[in-house]
Specification:
Endonuclease I-creI; 4-stranded antiparallel beta sheet
Length: 172
């Protein structure tokens, strides 16, 4: 006999798209999976980023506040329950308490750059300067941050495979 009860209805339509890949990039950097097996959260000081996340997933939930576990300050977040989406995220490589343990994420090649854009919007930045060693040499850098070395090494490899940009990893 099968399991009793109604089949869970997912809030998120799980079909690969640029929006889904972008949202997963944000979840990898600023999101979390609750240990209860159903809740997904995204925290950001930027409410526009939370709105973009909801738009990418085609969901509407209220934006609330929570206390940051790192700074102790209040910050905005969205949280919703979706068992089906939660299990999908587990299947592609996200886990609860992922900060230092996350590794490769299973993203279809077609949507990798959409994922990377979400990853960049979550924990990326750019900086530039004129290098005084060479006349008229403008240096421009793009950085990605992760507490997991395995994840950042995977990301570096994926970027190299697609763009032939080597980059380097620092421990700051």
């Amino acid at each position: 006999m099968g399991k009793r009860g109604a089949k869970p209805k997912g809030k998120v339509k799980i079909k690969w798209s640029p929006g889904l890949a972008y949202a997963i990039g944000l979840l990898v950097t600023d999101g979390s999976l609750s240990s209860d097996g159903r809740h997904i959260s995204l925290v950001s000081k930027d409410t526009e980023q939370l709105e973009n996340f909801m738009k990418a997933l085609k969901i509407r939930v209220s934006i609330g506040t929570t206390r940051s576990g790192y700074t102790g300050k209040m910050t905005t977040r969205i949280q919703f329950g979706d068992i089906t989406f939660y299990h999908f995220l587990l299947g592609i490589g996200l886990t609860p308490n992922k900060t230092k343990t996350i590794s490769a994420i299973k993203i279809p090649n077609r949507y990798f750059f959409d994922f990377l854009r979400g990853h960049f919007d979550g924990d990326g930045c750019t900086y530039s300067y004129f290098d005084p060693r060479w006349k008229s040499s403008f240096m421009f850098y793009t950085t990605f941050v992760s507490a997991s070395k395995r994840h950042i090494v995977w990301l570096q490899k994926e970027i190299f495979n697609r763009l032939k940009i080597q980059g380097h990893i620092t421990n700051d």
